[in-house]
Amino acid sequence: MKTETLLVVSLSLSADVLGLHVGDVSFCSDVVRRKEWGALHPKSKINTRPVSNVILHHSLGPTCITEPTCRSIVRTTQLQHIKIKGWDDIGYNFLVSENGQVFEGRGWGVEAAAVMGLTDRAVHIAIIGSFNHRTPADAAMVAVSRLIQCGMGLGKVHEDYKISAHRDVEPTACPGHKLYALIRGWNRYVKTP
Ligand SMILES: [Zn+2]
User: Fold this and answer.
1) From the CA of 170, how far away is ligand 1's center (Å)?
2) 145: CA distance to ligand 1 center in Å?
3) Per-residue model confidence (pLDDT) at position 19
4) From the centroid of its chain, how far is CA 66?
5) CATH level 3 topology of 2-183
6) Residue 109 Cα, ligand 1 centroid: separation in angstroms?
7) Any long-range contacts for 5-13 (C-beta under 8 Å, 24+ apart)?
8) Cα of 175 to ligand 1 centre, how many Å?
9) Model pLDDT, residue 27
10) Looking at residue 13, what is its pLDDT?
11) Model pTM?
């Protein structure tokens, strides 16, 4: 009986965790802000209007399940994006870890790195890890869902938003084969945002 219950919960999360929700600013307090993870200042930033698209990525690096390790990965990611890729800041608007924590990247209302695609009308969320061979833990997907609810509550994400993957808008394997297969099963998914 217990196993069955767990299975149902797991299936519902995988199938449609991002399909049914409304704005809820109470989830905004869950976000680990830039100053909390030790972000460098952005070199510049471009503001955007509220968006109708959510684009999902994987970070294509190690995963993390403890806050100190996740903060370290987020700091390292920002350094790589600024020093190696030459971007103005960490590329993503937000990053989500498999223990369900959300880290503020560029944040709401700011264009993501240009190579992410659709930067003037999408919020870009990366799940920390590599998802070619496995799907992210459900906690990460719940955190993505709550983050979007936060964005809707703040008026930064339109209620009729759609979800796509990075590979739908740019030539890349991101967000990994397994995560891509998962995203494509969601009600909010569109291949051509
Ligand atoms: Zn990507």
Assistant:
1) 9
2) 18
3) 53
4) 18
5) Lysozyme-like (3.40.80)
6) 19
7) 10/138, 13/138, 13/141, 13/142
8) 6
9) 93
10) 46
11) 0.91
Block means of pLDDT (10 residues each) for the chain, length 193 residues? 44 48 88 97 95 97 95 98 97 97 98 92 97 96 94 95 96 97 93 95
What token pair was written down for 131?
A: 């998802």
CA of 6 to the centre of ligand 1 (A): 31
Q: Say what the pLDDT of residue 16 is.
A: 46
Tell me the domain boundaries of the chain: 2-183
Query: In degrees to the nearest 10, what's the CA dihedral of 10, 13, 16, 21?
Result: 150
Q: How far is the CA of 56 from the centre of ligand 1 (A)?
A: 7
Q: Residue 1 Cα, ligand 1 centroid: separation in angstroms?
A: 39
- Please tell me the predicted confidence (pLDDT) of residue 57: 98
Distance 24 CA to ligand 1 centre (A): 26
Give the distance (Å) from ligand 1 centre to CA of residue 28: 23
SS3 (DSSP) at 75: helix
Centroid of ligand 1 to alpha carbon of 2 (angstroms): 37
Do residues 53 and 124 touch, judged by C-beta distance below 8 A?
A: no
Ligand 1: distance of its center to the CA of 80 in Å?
14
Phi and psi at residue 84, to the nearest 5°: -95, -50
The full DSSP string for 155-175 is TSEEEEEEEEEHHHHSSS-TT
Cα–Cα distance for residue pair 32/121, rounded to 1 Å: 23
